[in-house]
Amino acid sequence: MYYAASPRSVGERRACGRARGARAVCGGKCRFSGRSCGWIVHGPPRHRYVVLCHEHDRRTCLLDATFPDVEHSMRPAYFDAMNDVIARLHRLDYTAIGLGDFGRPGNYFTRQIARWSQQYVGDADAGRNPNMDRLIEWLPANIPASDETSIVHGDFRVDNLIFHPTEPRIIAVLDWELATLGHPLADFANHAMMYHMPPHIVAGLAGADIARMNIPTEHDYIAAYCRRTGRASMPDYEYYIAFNFFRLAAIFHGIKGRAIRGTAANAHAQERANLSRCSPKSPGRARSK
Question: What is the pLDDT at residue 200?
Answer without folding.
Answer: 82
